[in-house]
Amino acid sequence: MKYNWKLSETTFTKDKGNVFSCFACGGGSTMGYKLAGFDVIGANDIDPKMADVYKINHDPKYYFLESITTFAKRNDLPAELYDLDILDGSPPCSSFSMMGNREKGWGKEKKFREGQAKQVLDTLFFDFIDLAKELQPKVVVAENVKGLLLGNAKDYVRRIYKEFDKAGYYCQHWLLDASKMGVPQRRERVFFICLRKDLAKPFLYQKDMFTVVPKLNLEFNEKPILFKEIYQKGNKERLLTDFSKKIWDLRKYTDVGFEDINLREFNKPNLHFGKKFIFKNKVMNTITSKDDCVLFDEPRHKSTLENILGGSFPKDYNFLKVKHQYLIGMSVPPLMVAKIAEQIYIQWLSKI
User: Fold this and answer.
1) 3-state secondary structure the chain
2) Which residues are catalytic?
3) How large is the greatest C-alpha to C-alpha distance in the chain, in angstroms?
4) Could you tell me if 269 and 259 are in contact, meaning their C-beta atoms sit under 8 angstroms apart?
5) Which residues is 109 bridged to in the sheet?
6) Positive/negative CA dihedral, 220, 221, 224, 230
7) What is the pTM of this model?
8) What gap in Å lies between CA 329 and CA 317, rounded to an integer?
9) Which domains are assigned to the chain?
10) What are the tens digits of pLDDT across the range 68-89?
11) What is the pLDDT of residues 260-319, one digit of tens each?
12) How far is residue 40's CA from residue 43's CA, in Å, rounded to a whole number?
């Protein structure tokens, strides 16, 4: 499995088990499961534009364009969804992101994208657990941001564990970095991975004096892929504006981004907070939905191909009319999920 690949040149074996993906976005996690040999039989999301992108690239057997709250309450789901190997989901995470409002936004309704119903984002995780309780897949995988483990958000983690326990699962979580998993991007994400209790006996061990969990080793230490390995020389897709170029000209090697320049040169803190520098001899910054990062050596933003490679998306992915940087920034890197799914199969599912 490599970050530089194409859908049209890849054979998906579909022999490792069935997966259903919730909050599927453009299909980042779906591609990861497919690369690991799983058959992703369907998906759910609330965004019509993302649904169009997902369908044209993956042609799912089942697709439900609706909120997870509505989907979890359905009583007409296909029988195949009650016999899943993995139920996957990436509940919207902006409520817990260190880049967002965090506590100020908890419990409040938010209209996440045009055309969507208002939702209380920090409760959607528990709707997802309700779905798991109903469908009873062998394994549940839920991805979220690092901020979920920090500060007051830890109370949500405790509740997540409690609700998974009530749903019939042993739950564990890992903080993983995509840059150690063959992805040319620094991207830390939390993965909650849960095994159904009636299947767990062969894998149980005592984690500490009080906690018994099914053993799963998720240690990844692959060699980092530096930005220079995906750098596209001479690209002029997204050159800086004249205004931004004047700020860029004042950069120093000690600057992390435009914020440092604005503070030093103009005494304006927190201005252009998202405009971080990308250095050729370092791993690329996390790709965000706004993707405002700037090359240190050239007055431009990343190119389309640099974002695609950095996100481990296939080079022939059809983004339709959705901005590629938004979709990739909102998605789990396919290669990251592929490495996790591979280990879930090797260590658990192949032995059940």
Assistant:
1) CCCCCCHHHCCCCCCCCEEEEECCCCCHHHHHHHHCCCEEEEEEECCHHHHHHHHHHHCCCEEEECCHHHHHCCCCCCHHHHCCCEEEECCCCCCCCCCCCHHHHCCCEECCCCCCCCEEHHHHHHHHHHHHHHHCCCEEEEEEEHHHHCHHHHHHHHHHHHHHHHHCEEEEEEEEEHHHCCCCCCCEEEEEEEEEHHHCHHHEEECCCCCEEECCCCCCCCCCCCHHHCCCCCCCCCECCHHHHHHHCCCCCCCCEHHHHHHHHHCCCCCCCCCEEECCCCCCCCCCCCCCCEECCCCEECCHHHHHHHCCCCCCCCCCCCCHHHHHHHCCCHHHHHHHHHHHHHHCHHHC
2) 93
3) 63
4) yes
5) 120
6) negative
7) 0.92
8) 15
9) 7-222+331-351 (3.40.50.150)
10) 999 999 999 999 999 999 999 9
11) 999 999 999 878 888 999 999 999 999 999 888 999 999 999 999 999 999 999 999 999
12) 8
How many angstroms separate the CA atoms of 204 and 253, rounded? 50
Residue 189 tokens read as: 């994400």
Residue type, 337: V
Residues 335 and 320: their CA atoms lie apart, in Å, by: 22
CA–CA dist 314, 308 (Å, integer): 7
